[in-house]
């Protein structure tokens, strides 16, 4: 039976870098954020978002993600509402994806909200990626072209590293590529023994 590794970490921690290394090792990786964006474009989800947030978050029938972000990262109830629309659909999509990869001994689900969404419960192992806060902030500012204040709001809306670590089986300290590779190999050795 295919074992599921949940790969998580705060925004800017380097989850995607770690996920890409798993891919290089031939392990299938599901990037929940990428798939979630595709799922959000389905008519059913767009209608649910419009019902919940109104037409103000749309530009001529096209969802304006920036407007949605401004709302949800300033209102935790609205964030919960958005997640309750998208997360169940992502979870269904992921389970179908796992079924389509059942010939692999391991698959990885990379998602920032592994614990917040409850999807950690379907994982056999959980890995949290950590990195120094300033590194995370600078990465996100550079990647998303947003302000430091907006990055900090997003960080505040996620679980803390301490909470993630307490609920994880393994930790990857994202300091540099060599360290990541060594840690991933060590974790895989332990997982394959179990």
Architecture blueprint of SSEs:
Blueprint: E1 3-9, H1 15-24, E2 29-31, H2 32-40, H3 43-53, E3 58-59, E4 62-63, H4 65-72, H5 76-100, E5 106-110, E6 125-130, H6 133-144, H7 148-156, H8 161-166, E7 170-173, H9 177-193
Parallel strand pairs: 1-5, 1-6, 2-5, 6-7
Antiparallel strand pairs: 3-4
Helix pairs in contact: 1-9, 2-5, 3-5
Shape: globular
**Rg, alpha carbons:** 17 Å
Low-pLDDT runs of 5+ residues are: none
The helix content is 55-70%
> So how many helices?
9
Mean pLDDT level: 93
**How do the strands line up in the largest sheet?**
2-5-1-6-7
Subunit arrangement of the protein: single chain
Describe the sheet with the most strands: 5 strands, parallel
For the secondary structure, the number of strands is 7
Brief descriptors of the model:
194 residues, alpha/beta, 5-stranded parallel β-sheet, 9 helices, 15% strand
Structure description:
The chain contains nine helices and seven strands; from the N terminus they run βαβααββααββαααβα. It has 194 residues and is of the alpha/beta class. α1 packs across α9 and α2 packs across α5. The chain is globular and about 50 Å long. The protein starts with a strand and ends with a helix. The mean pLDDT is 93.
In summary, what is this structure?
This protein is of the alpha/beta class and 194 residues long.
